[in-house]
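Take just one protein record:
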Amino acid sequence: MENIITINAEPRAEISKRASKGLRKQGKVPAVIYGITADSNPIAVDLADIKGILKSENKENSILRITQGGKARFDAMIKEIQYDYLSDHIIHVDFIRIDLNKPVDVEVPVVIEGEAVGVKTEDGLLEFIQREILVRSLPTHIPKEIRVDISGLHVGQSIKVENLAKSDDFQVISPANNVICAVAAKAKEEVPAVVEEAEVPAEGAAVEAEGEKEKAKEPEKEADKAKKEG
């Protein structure tokens, strides 16, 4: 990745909810630029510029050259974008200063290719578990995406981070044993067991059984009566 997107920023003199709301009405987004050796710098950028970055080839991993009135100029990347929780409106952006000659750690999307044989011929289900991979590289060598061929996956097999092809342009930082995707067997449908209901005795049979119990108790009652009288 070598394309650098230039955007203009203006300083923010007032930092408050009211001021931020006013900027958004003007089509701007409140933002902050962070850096390791420099203080944070509150700025405002055009919303159209941020949307353009997100539609570009490298999206949030794009290299940005931020200018302020033609005086200050520095390279940066998007660190975080905050959205309104009730909508998809962008309400704030954090930028991080970068050095094009020093590596950065970024999340790169995973793209799967092909159709797993376990899904195609073995009636399995594809589970796409890890959709982003953390990599370390120079800003100009950040991959747009990491492609994973799943066509050889059978039921019960998976692709882990350690199975990814190595590259001279970047180093994978995500744990090696993290599963990216897997083909699982479909769960078998359980047939509910039929529970046989106990036979309920007819009303007459129940009365007769109760009568038999009472007859069996009569000798005991007579014995108790004789003890009391004696």
Observations:
- The helical segments are 17-25, 47-55, 117-120, 203-229.
